[in-house]
Amino acid sequence: MSLTIAMNNALTGLKVNQNALAVTSSNLANINNANYSRKVLLQETQVIAGVGAGVTADTIRRNVNTLIQRDFREETTTLASIQTESNYLNRIQQMFGSVANKNSVGDLIDKFNASLETLGSSPEISANYFTSVNNGTILAQRIRDMADTVQAERMRADAEIKQAVDDIEQQLVIIAEINGTIPGQTALGLPTGDLEDKRDQAIDKLAEYMDIQYFVTDKNQVNVLTKTGHTLISGSFQADLSFRQTTLITADESYPAVLDGIHLNAGTTPSAANDITSSITSGKLGALFKARDTILPSMTNQLDQMSAALRDQVNRAHNRGANTPMGLGTGALDPATMLGSRSFPNTAQAMTIGSDVNMVLLDSTGAMVGGMGTITAGATTPAAVQTAINTFLGANGTAGFDADGRLEIKLNSNVRLAFKDTGAATNAGDSVIQYDADGDTVNENYNGFSNFFGLNDFFVTPQLSTTVPAVAGQGSQTGISSGLVVRQDMIDTPSNISRGSLSGTPPNYALGPGNNDVALQLASVFEQNYTFNGVSNGPDVTSTTISGYAGVMLSYSATVAQSAENSLSFQSSLAGDLQIKMQNESGVNMDEELANMVVFQNAYNAAARVIQITGEMLDTVIELA
């Protein structure tokens, strides 16, 4: 009987050590597999009827420290978020250019300013007109390029969100399938360690995209939820995530009005009720939404503010000039000599002119043609102003409103029209116009008669959703940086740029050949400080020059990008340390496995030797019988 027990004990040892060698060989085969966790064959003493009956080893355990693993996944989520945000911030920083290389938008503003100063000092040189208009055109183009780059980055983020959602769906499928397989494998006594490794790999990938929480059930299934508790995986059930990618994004499109979010189990009816975007605050996905809906729109806001200041201040000075284009004809199909930028939906709406506005006609030499006309200060309407101009022009031209409600003036080919405000010197002579442009029933103040109508603008800013330009106080200002342009007739004929205003004593005015006061005022625009509003996720309210604000934007962007780089360096180090700790526990150590292999081999040989000896003893017993 004892010999039989010895034989059975040896057989169990043989089997167990054979299985241990198989596990060890699998560990060694996966020594370079970062997603593999070391397997350990758990051995237990086998007892039958109170008597030792060898050894058993039915369970293969993974050597994983779940606490470190959980910490690693949390830090991986943060790392992916910082890394994604840093990538977008760095690309924005590149968009601004470098001060050292003199290619930033601030440098282009300074270059435009310098050309206006040169024009002011030498208005008789025709090349100075071309240079000023050309530098203004280059500046506007650069601002438009920056604005377009911001929207392109938003489209990139939107596309990456779609890719992330598709990848998340794939990982959820893997987790759900493995959850459904493991209970059956366990019931059959089959090892599940490799399946758990594959499931862990999917959970690790999921943690890169979004902040999650999870727990293991008594069936060895992993249930996964969002940080705020929305179920993504429950057993073998997989939630459905959906997202609609947008093929074109403009500055006035935002989430959730136009742009889509992440919807959970929405089917064919995505709605605010199944939108879980707000619960995804970290990971790559959270950073992509932050870039698309917060960081990049902040950049648009800053560019729009700078563009509005550039447009309004340059246009105010330029509209004081008398160097308006010569008439192009008064035919019905002829283009207007002077076409306003401001649109009047109701030309009978009340407005007030703060001081008289004088009108004169000039010939090609700048000499006055005929007498002076006056638009009298006081309460009036756009229609009444149009009538007053028409009456003054007589046979020399016509004034009316185009289909968009803009004041247009057509002149005979031998005259040009000039306005002269008689406002206070403290307001640079501009008349103050009171008018409710934004429809809030409260009148706003606008400086300069011609400037208010936009009759001699230098820069125009078409709106995104209409052909009518946005002007100070009217029209959507969102996205104007993507449409900032120099007025086309000045690009075609640079001499149309204003360089001087009417001089003389009413009613005798003229535009002298050496008059350069407007050109000098244009240059001085860039020396004055203006108030720029604070921007969410951008610079605080600041008072500076237009070029200075370009520097503020560049500085803020550089500071934020550097801060993200510093955070990325720290987080990479932290996540790396946790990964090393996790791999030290779950990874395969070649020396350890080879040592174990020698032990299991010797144990196997010993068990085989016991069987051999026991067999010989049994043969002897049989012979003695």
Automatic annotation (TrEMBL):
It is found in: Bacterial flagellum; Secreted. InterPro entries: Flg_bb/hook_C_dom, FlgK, FlgK_helical. It holds the Pfam family Flg_bbr_C. GO terms for biological process: bacterial-type flagellum assembly. Residues 89-323 form the Flagellar hook-associated protein FlgK helical domain. The keyword Secreted applies. It comes from the Bacteria. Residues 584-624 form the Flagellar basal-body/hook protein C-terminal domain. One of its GO terms (cellular component) is extracellular region. Its main location: other. Keywords: Bacterial flagellum, Secreted. One of its GO terms (molecular function) is structural molecule activity. Belongs to the flagella basal body rod proteins family. This is Flagellar hook-associated protein 1. It comes from Kiloniella litopenaei.
